[in-house]
Amino acid sequence: MSLVLDQVGYKYPGTATGLDALSLNVHAGELVAIIGPSGSGKSTLLKLISGLTTGHTGSITLNGRDLSDIPVHQRNIGMVFQSYALFPHLNVLDNIAYGLKLRKMPLAQRRRAAQELLEVVGMAEFADRAVAQLSGGQQQRVALARALAIDPSALLLDEPLAALDAGLRGQLRDQIRAIHRRFNSITLLVTHDQEEALTMADRVAVLVQGRLLQFAPPKEIYEHPASRAVAQFVGHSSLFPARVIALNQIDTGFAVLAAATGSRPAGAQVHALIRPEHVDPAPPPVAANRLAGYVGTQRYLGAVYRYDFHVLGTDSLLLAESRTLAGNAIAIPPEHIQLLDH
Length: 342
Description:
This protein is an alpha+beta fold. The protein has 2 domains: 230 residues, P-loop containing nucleotide triphosphate hydrolases (Rossmann fold), CATH 3.40.50; 105 residues, no CATH class. It is 25% helix and 32% strand. It contains 8 helices and 19 strands. The strands form 4 sheets. It has a 6-stranded mixed β-sheet, sandwiched between helices. Helix 2 packs parallel to helix 4 and helix 3 packs across helix 4. The longest helix is centred in the middle third of the chain and has 18 residues. The model has no long low-confidence stretch (mean pLDDT 91).
């Protein structure tokens, strides 16, 4: 069982922009997060898969079935929107049972199935409640249960937690992940929240201007981004143009640093990526890549400080993150400087 997108393209009406020959293969039991800047095509991709938007090139197949000419209601795809899209005239139980009613399931059977799903999402006692009387988090759980009621071949989640406060997002993030595992579904999650993507997903797809830049497990996306665009979008970082000057040496313009240059020849132009948590705020006097300077803007985040370290004698600064603020020097371990070729 899988969802396969093969060279899928789409142009927004009246423009030359859209999705550009995008290919993905999502397996049963896999949760894939789709992230990228606004306007990169994330929600459009879900609408093409669900059939809410048509007119794409390439092919979309679900469990070997080409979806191109199949109407929305016959694709057996569940979808949860940021706006929840619940029916205000129906109570909670009837909202969940609605899709089963369309499938001509007998009343007693569909009410029993809906009640079981309410128990799965922790809402059993709210069966007869009007949806207007529910909190945002409760409405989102009802929307999730409704999407799951039809036993979908694929589950599409479009910014499902964006309207919730941070604490509730964390709770529902874990619950969605647990429900996904229980149902072993093909799940695509569109989100602007990088933490949401990295903590929930088995793999992450990074879209920028309609192009798929990288599709890999969260750890690989964060620790080994395929390009500057991915590095800049995923997590915090310092990113500098640099030139290879010798084996395992680069010149960033503000300092000559030790870094693994691999097979790159002297003169090669690269970008040096440094994650803030890899900056050493208290290095010994002889540490590799020791830089003198001072702390500028600082941000207290509770568990750590995130701050700007200004390199002495230059206009350059490094973003650092640690439990304590740096003094007048920091160091960057050579093994934590990643070089990007594009």
